Amino acid sequence: MGRTLGSGGRWMSLLRRQKAVDAEIVGVPAASPGHPSSRPCSEPGCQAPDRVSCDYRDRRGAPCPTAWCADHVMTVHSWHLCRRHARVVQALAPVEFRGELPPPDLNNRAPSLASYLAEALDSRMRAALGELGHPANGEHVSAEALTPLNTENRGRRWAQGWKLFDNTGPLLRIDVEVDEARDPECAIRLNSRVILRCVPPWIQDRKAAAPPMEGAEDEKRRQVFYDRLMEQHVRPALVAEEHWVRRWEHSPNSAV
Questions:
Q1: Per DSSP, which regions of 51-206 are E strands?
Q2: Residues 242-252: tens digit of each pLDDT
């Protein structure tokens, strides 16, 4: 059976089936078989029959050209999606007060890459911020939704992150960012400054046409990458920033 992701919200104009371009997919029964495709499964090496097209349409209405078998398609409600667009649909689901965002262009990998890294780092980031928080003072850690932001060059970057905050506002905010103009470079922004820029090693391998790692070996390397990123860059920067933010609390005259 195809893999299923959790609730993705209602994008009223995002996904339309090729069979009925003018019909909204919202409301189609979850058991919908999808729109059959004559293309082979887009998973490398897969020769499975009975493929369906990815239901994604970008903001210009262009369809995703991929097709997937039952073992490799991703489903969100009744929508049949490739891995990249399943992540985009869920990450950009409507958020209170934000409304709906237009679906990114087909060739725009920035939002899905930012969301992927944020998901991979989530438990580590929450733990690092939690260690610096003072729950007794009403400080809490929360995650922020994926959001597009304008850049100084009139471009756009995609950010998803976390914040340590109290009733006066955020004390620390850290985001994973991908600038559309610098993809596949990823950035880590702490409050207002970028503390790290890097290209994940598995993307470097693809660009260099190196043989891909698979299975447990690939997963182990990714976890090592995340651990090093946290220990060598994120944690030291968070500790230093937290000390700066609380500098008046540590001052002998702070109570005067």
A1: 51-53, 67-68, 74-76, 79-81, 140-143, 147-150, 156-166, 169-179, 186-190, 193-198
A2: 999 998 876 55
How many structural domains compose the chain?
2
Q: Are residues 71 and 119 in the same domain?
A: no
Q: Which residues contact 196 (CB under 8 A, 6 or more apart)?
A: 187, 188, 229, 233, 234
pTM of the model: 0.77
* C-alpha span between 126 and 2 (Å, rounded): 30
User: Residue 2: how many CB atoms within 10 A of its CB?
Assistant: 15
Looking at 133-197, list the stretches that DSSP marks H as alpha helix, in order from N- to C-terminal side. Answer: none
**CA distances from residue 160 to 70, 75, 92, 177 in whole angstroms, order as listed:** 30, 23, 11, 7
The answer as to whether 118 is a domain residue is yes
Domain edge (last residue) among 104, 136, 156: 104
Q: Give the separation between CA 249 and CA 246, rounded to whole angstroms.
A: 5
For 117-159, the pLDDT digits (tens) are 999 999 999 999 999 999 999 999 999 989 889 988 888 999 9
